[in-house]
Structure formats: C-alpha cells, structure tokens
Write a structure and sequence with these properties.
The chain has eleven helices and ten strands. The protein is α/β, with parallel strands linked by helices. The chain binds NADP nicotinamide-adenine-dinucleotide phosphate (NAP).
Length: 323
C-alpha cells in the first residue's frame, strides 16, 4: 500500500522525505553548457516510473537548470507527474559571482524552468563569496520577500551553525524551516550542537551524505575497525529486515527525525530508496537497534566526505561525534 511519507515543517507545510534525486555530488558540474543527457533521462524516468512525490534537491551552483528544464517540460507534456507531485528545492549560490542575488536569481530560475514557484529555497552556505555585495541578513530578507510574493513556498538554510541561525532570527525574527547539513552516524554534528539545536527548535534537519558510512566501506576509503564493525551490523539488520544496507541507513536517519537527501546514478537504487518508506511504513527499527547504530557511529572518528566544500567545519572535529 503506497502511503507518501512527510516531515512537518514548523509552518505546518509538509515536506516529502526522503529526497531521492540530489542533482549535486555525482551530477555537479561547473558550467550549464556541459549538458548531461543522463541526468535529463534519469529525471524523466523518475517522473514516469516512481510512485509518489518526487523530491528533487537542486542548487544554482550545480549548474543543472538546463537538464531540469528539459525534464520538467517532457514530464508536463506527457502528463507523468502534476506540479504537486514534484517537490523542487533550490539553493542560493552563496559562493556565486558578484551579481548573485536571491530575487534576481529566483525570477530567472522560474523563467528557465517554466515554474510558478519553488517549493523550498535555501541559502546554500553561511559564508558568502567575498564578491557578493549583499550580506547574509540582506540575503535572508530577500528570501522572506520571495516567500511573501509566493515565488517560493518555504525558506531555509544549509550548512548553518547555531550562531549563524540565531543571527538570522535576531536580525529578522524569521526562523528557517530547514537546515540542510552533512549528517550521518559518522558525523552527528557538522558544527557544535547543531543536531540538538535544530531538534529543539523545530527546524527540520535535511541530511546530505546520509550514506557516507556505506559508501566509504564500499570504495575502501574507510579502513578503520569501527567502520568495519558498523558495516557488519548494517548487514545484520539488512538481512533481518530483508532490505538493503541503504534502506537501513535511510530508515535510521528518519528514526532520528532527519530527512535524508540521497542520490544515485542507478535507477534501481533510487527506486529502492523512494519506495521503502512509502511502501513499508511498518519498517521501524527497534529502539535497541537505533541505539546500537548510534553507539557504533559515535565510536567512529568524525568522517567528512565534503571536506573541500565545507573545510570551515574541520575546526569542530572534536565536537562532531557527540550527541
Ligand atoms: N547543501 C549542501 O552543501 C550539499 C552538499 C553535498 C550534497 N548535497 C545534496 O545531497 C545530495 C546527496 O548527497 P550525497 O551524494 O552525498 O548522498 P549519499 O546518498 O550519501 O551518497 C550518494 C552516493 O552513494 C552511492 N550509493 C547509493 N546507494 C549505494 C549502495 N547501495 N551501495 C553503494 N553506493 C551507493 C551512489 O553511487 P551510485 O551512483 O553508484 O549509486 C552515490 O555516489 C546531493 O546530490 C546534493 O543534492 C548538498
């Protein structure tokens, strides 16, 4: 029985989770002109064949608007998904050029994609490229304006620390609905105390890199004993529930009240991730299993897959594996 899974934002809106199509990481490119037909085809296939709401995680800096535009056009022409069956997240390019400006950028994006609104708009990073003329508070105020105009339905942040979020609230009185951060059992706190702060303040955490503990085992980059022990336990649970390791990690993420943002180049993996929560809402790990995953994760040294992009956070290495 298909039943769409949602997280509820503090404003009452419901956001479908997990997000199974991240157009960053494996699809990231430096120039819109480097068109990737595989991404377009992947999106179209997802619209056509996946059940439920397709939650796409996009960003201006991924340079994927041309593929998005073509896939959305084909989708609407062929009548696969309605607009309400697509959740489109986009992000302000904090590392962008001098003219990066939320209001100008969102208006251009809506035109490029032939959409009337963006479901969720995030400030990609609190540290702005020094060539951007507006400061972070002015950018957040622009996001609020876009919300009031209905061009975006929800606004949030990404890679923000507790202080970064408190600053926005102090200056504008407006709290983000979401903070998208790198998060998994080997990285519970991208910055000090951010997991608990978001949970306590009703800000939904979206996890990018939720599969890192698995990916680093499979590609051999994690040679620690703790990593191996963790994988053995994942395998044990996967076999108990007759699902993949991916599903166990995603189910764990959701059990920790965190919305996973995952992606793959392989359709079967996307289908697996999209279907599991919705088709199997009864797949609930026991309290003991959740605790054991947490405990094994905490024993593992901090692991950051996105060190280059977020090198700012390596200063918090000793505080990241605490809950
Ligand atoms: N806000 C930010 O600053 C930020 C930063 C980074 C990422 N993001 C967003 O988050 C999205 C997801 O990030 P992520 O790529 O780190 O997510 P992830 O879900 O942790 O990792 C995805 C990777 O896992 C591999 N994978 C999936 N299932 C697997 C399996 N069963 N066995 C082995 N490998 C498997 C995929 O490879 P295959 O293709 O081979 O399946 C893919 O390379 C990005 O696309 C982007 O939209 C945001």
């Amino acid at each position: 029985m298909f039943k769409q899974h949602f997280f509820t934002l503090y404003n009452g809106n419901k956001i479908p989770g997990p997000s199974t199509i991240g157009s960053g990481s494996i699809y990231f490119k430096h120039d819109e002109k480097d068109y990737n037909p595989n991404l377009t085809a992947f999106l179209v296939r997802s619209f056509k064949d996946l059940k439920g709401i397709i939650h796409i995680d996009n960003a201006a800096c991924y340079k994927t608007y041309p593929e998005m535009a073509d896939a959305l056009k084909e989708n609407f022409e062929k009548g696969y998904k309605t607009r309400k069956e697509i959740w489109f997240t986009d992000k302000f390019d904090s590392r962008g050029a001098r003219d990066a400006d939320p209001i100008i950028n969102v208006n251009e994006t809506l035109k490029k994609l032939n959409l009337e609104y963006i479901d969720l708009y995030l400030i990609h990073h609190p540290i702005l490229n020094e060539t951007i003329t507006k400061d972070i508070v002015a950018i957040w105020k622009d996001c609020i304006t876009l919300l009031e105009e209905g061009k975006v339905k929800n606004i949030g942040v990404s890679n923000f620390s507790v202080n970064d979020i408190e600053n926005l609230i102090k200056e504008t009185g407006f709290k983000p609905v979401v903070n998208q951060i790198e998060w998994n059992p080997f990285l519970f706190n991208q910055s000090p105390g951010i997991y608990r702060y978001c949970q306590d303040n009703d800000i939904v955490i979206e996890a990018y890199g939720p599969l890192s503990p698995l990916v680093s085992q499979i590609n051999g980059s994690d040679t620690t004993e703790e990593g191996k022990t963790f994988k053995v336990y994942l395998d044990e649970l996967a076999s108990k529930y007759n699902v993949t390791d991916t599903v166990i990690l995603l189910a764990y993420t959701i059990s920790m009240n965190v919305l996973p943002v995952t992606t793959s180049t392989k359709f079967a993996r996307i289908e697996d991730a999209q279907n599991f929560v919705n088709d199997h809402p009864e797949l609930a790990l026991t309290k003991e299993e959740i605790k054991k995953i947490t405990d094994l994760g905490l024993k593992h040294p901090t692991e950051r897959r996105y060190r280059g992009f977020t090198d700012h956070y390596t200063q918090f290495e000793n505080e990241s594996q605490k809950l």
